[in-house]
Amino acid sequence: MITFDHVHFYYKKGQPVINNMSFTIGTGEFVAIVGSNGCGKSTIAKLMDGLLLPKKGSVTFNNLDTSRPTDLDMIHEHIGFVFQNPEDQFITTNVMDEVVFGMENIRVPREEIQSRLDHALRAVQMEDYLDSMPHQLSGGQKQRVAIAAIVAMRPQFIIFDEATSMLDPLGREHVLSIMHELHRLGMTIIHITHHMEEVLSAERILVIHEGRIEFDGNPLTFFETVDVKDYQLELPFAVRLYQMLYQSTSLMADWKEMIRIQWSIN
Ligand SMILES: Nc1ncnc2c1ncn2[C@@H]1O[C@H](COP(=O)(O)OP(=O)(O)OP(=O)(O)O)[C@@H](O)[C@H]1O
Ligand SMILES: [Mg+2]
């Protein structure tokens, strides 16, 4: 369980980025974190993993505290982090070493390394690229290798910080299905995204605005009850379509007009 207890954070004194934030994410949850550019999502992710430390309040993972240096190794072992740009996390020169490196870092027993490597690469369908150079792969393939490196470490929680934003729709769908598969296998998934369609498949949504939590609950309830424009967000296409059909049954008769309105910028 990750717990934020009255967390305050700033990069520059006098310019607060996280304001008195408290929440808990329990084991086995699938949580989406959304909000406009600069609202503090990546900062929250880095606070979770102990890459940043709160100025006030505490961030704990079970009974480990990110502000205790002796707890940080264990926290990194249990919380994996997939970044927006996979190149940021490549360290070695081939796919196999990339996945093995993370495991060696957390001292996975030597006899387990091969089977975890095979399993992780199969999970992301990259088993045929063992000897490839990470930098020569496509964006989607890089992202899959980055995910395999994390999966092989078997963390309890994985934070995806806009890990799908550089991918084409098929690549996004694939990474999203990997997230759901990992969730089904018992991992806790924290998915930071600007894609509202992806939010619909989460169990819980945290909406961040100016360093505060503005909504914490079921995504459908959020889209039904809150004016998303207040948070510079948009409704998922499915919800917009539903609302248009619901509001005006006559539109149903003229579906071409409905689609035209749906996509017109006014
Ligand atoms: N290293 C840093 N030094 C100083 N200010 C920073 C630093 N990183 C982020 N900030 C500032 O902190 C605020 C929150 O940034 P953060 O990266 O958490 O936003 P975000 O919600 O992840 O945005 P995005 O959707 O664009 O990724 C922003 O105002 C940003 O300019
Ligand atoms: Mg960010």
TrEMBL record:
Topology of this chain in the membrane: Peripheral membrane protein
Keyword list, A-Z: ATP-binding, Cell membrane, Membrane, Nucleotide-binding, Translocase, Transport
Matches recorded under Pfam families: ABC_tran
Record carries keyword ATP-binding: yes
Subcellular location: Cell membrane
GO molecular function, a single term: ATP binding
Gene3D superfamilies: P-loop containing nucleotide triphosphate hydrolases
InterPro entries: AAA+_ATPase, ABC_transporter-like_ATP-bd, ABC_transporter-like_CS, ABC_transpr_CbiO/EcfA_su, ECF_ABC_transporter_ATP-bd, EcfA_1, P-loop_NTPase
UniProt main location, coarse: membrane
Record bears the keyword Ribosomal protein: no
ABC transporter domain segment(s): 2-235
Family designation: Belongs to the ABC transporter superfamily.
The protein's name: Energy-coupling factor transport system ATP-binding protein
Species in which this protein is naturally found: Paenibacillus macquariensis
